[in-house]
């Protein structure tokens, strides 16, 4: 069982546990509760002699006003979190997650300062706990973004993980050619993309990064899959296919990308795979060869893209074009 968050050894620890529910409405949106501390999945701590099902039913009534049907038990996750309720201490929370089905709303009166939201899973990037964002991926989004690669999972129970979300896009810029990023200073190639900011829709991040790194505006996105990498962090990468909406324009690089001499090139799919396979850039970080992990995930993404070719149906994202790029 991976542990999420960042442990601050100078602080004492308060132990807590809770029962949480993952539910979606008829539109496929996940239920989130907003309170004074932030965004959470519905749920909370059990009262004495209360079963998990009783806890969830009570918590959902109190926080959302909905009567529910409790389904299968999904997973147990633990996480460190800071909260103003415990000054100078961290909470170490163990959460047990269940699948929940909404029945009907039986009350419009909920706990003070609680607001019920239904949002796309891709927008659930600012939950108060990394563990709950991970749970949304595992039980809401992974069906839409099937996982095609996992690295270092055998070590997943030995570390505490902050969660990093990444969005990358395979851009079809010309007939039979896609965009790769090349470093002028290193023999290194990659697929355009980068980190998702807190609260940013993953899809918007993919569009922003494609425009910023490669200079290509994109108007269509199709989910290709996802990749999970355990190293000093837990990195969750979402991959898309897209068509370029016009020629490349001005790019907006971070200082590091500018130092590396990052530039876009157009290559056939076979050539892209060959370039990624011979990547010689080596970047070690606390014993993990992140370059090899990047090659593995990008090659797996191209394989998934190749398999999907012919069946790709792009949907319009023109309202999201030319979003200014922010620093990673």
Which terms summarize this structure?
328 residues, 6 helices, alpha+beta, 39% strand, Nucleoside Triphosphate Pyrophosphohydrolase
How does this model look, in words?
- The chain has 328 residues and is an alpha+beta fold.
- The chain has 2 domains: 3-141, Nucleoside Triphosphate Pyrophosphohydrolase, CATH 3.90.79; 147-320, Nucleoside Triphosphate Pyrophosphohydrolase, CATH 3.90.79.
- Helix content is 22%, strand content 39%.
- It has 6 helices and 20 strands.
- The chain has helices at 52-64, 130-141, 202-214, 255-260, 269-277, 290-308; strands at residues 3-4, 12-22, 30-35, 38-40, 43-44, 66-82, 89-105, 115-119, 147-151, 160-161, 163-174, 177-183, 189-190, 193-195, 220-230, 234-243, 262-268, 284-285, 288-289, 315-316.
- Strands 9, 11, 12, 13, 14, 15, 16, 17 and 20 form a 9-stranded mixed β-sheet that branches.
- β12 (177-183) and β13 (189-190) form a beta hairpin.
- α5 (269-277) packs antiparallel against α6 (290-308).
- Mean pLDDT is 88; it is low at 316-328.
